[in-house]
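Task 17 of the worksheet. Students: predict the tertiary structure of the chain below and write it out as structure tokens. Keep your answer in the requested format; marks are given for formatting as well as content.
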Amino acid sequence: MAYYSGAASDMAALRAAIVNSCLNHGWSWNSSTNVLSKGALFLLLTNDALNLSLTGRTSATAGDMPNAVQLGRLMQKSGAATLDVTYPAEWECFVFTNPDEVWFVVRYDVDRYQWCSFGGSAVAGLEGTGMWVAAIRGPVPINHDISSVVNPFYIRATEGGGTRSLGSGLTSGAWGWNTVAREFQALRDIFVHSNFDGHGWHLNEASLTTALIGVKSVSQLIQAQPSAWNSEAALIPMRAYKLRPSFKTSLVADLVNIRHVRIDNYVPGQIIELGSDRWKVYPWHRRNEAERDGIAPGDVAWINKDHTGTFGYAIRYDGP
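Model answer:
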């Protein structure tokens, strides 16, 4: 793997950081079309002043996933803080090969983090290119029709996201975590081109009204962390599944170099050593030990937070 870090003064500099990091590891950049590519993996990477947009493709010019995913403005509601990335922002980029996995982290406002990621699935037997693309939210910021909603996140160990309408909902902020239907665009934050059942990039049956598996596949493991015996937390596989006909599911992404981890007893940026491996720890957005479980059991689907509890992730690391 390779690790890069630096500071950025605007969103264009963050995009350039991703491109420059990838160029050293077999990726190619077409500045005329804004496409980053390697083999069968194609990523349209664009930005405006507020947002960085990632759109997976099956070729240099076609086969786009249903929508872009974005890093940037988190809230777009009158009277609510937008939680924009502020500058100077610190960034870190992790670039892995065999399989190709790229993970980009942005830190700002002291303790807030955003992320985006893309790569090629290590799962054998997929019928598509295997490219996966994800970010902290889908193509629009969070909005909501309930006045008490002023924060973007709905996350707990057993579920993520909350939807009310085409223009109203909340998101988890975590990779592959949302479990609700995706009518609201902000929830459309991860796609994998398995092409199973001819559904291209979709993780369901090409229907935005179908709830996803999301975090449910690892909920019990996440709830059981950290260990009451030694206060350490296990690194839990990060996977995505596609819903199939006849109530079946298929594994379509199994990340090799990134894991779920509870960060009750870790600080953001801490390095964990496990044998010969080193892992660097981050919150999905903002750590809050006092509300470690995010949304409390039984809370309604419009309870909202500006943090992600002690839910986080660890990335394989060989930096300083």
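Marker's comment: Residues 2-316 form one domain. The radius of gyration is 18 Å.
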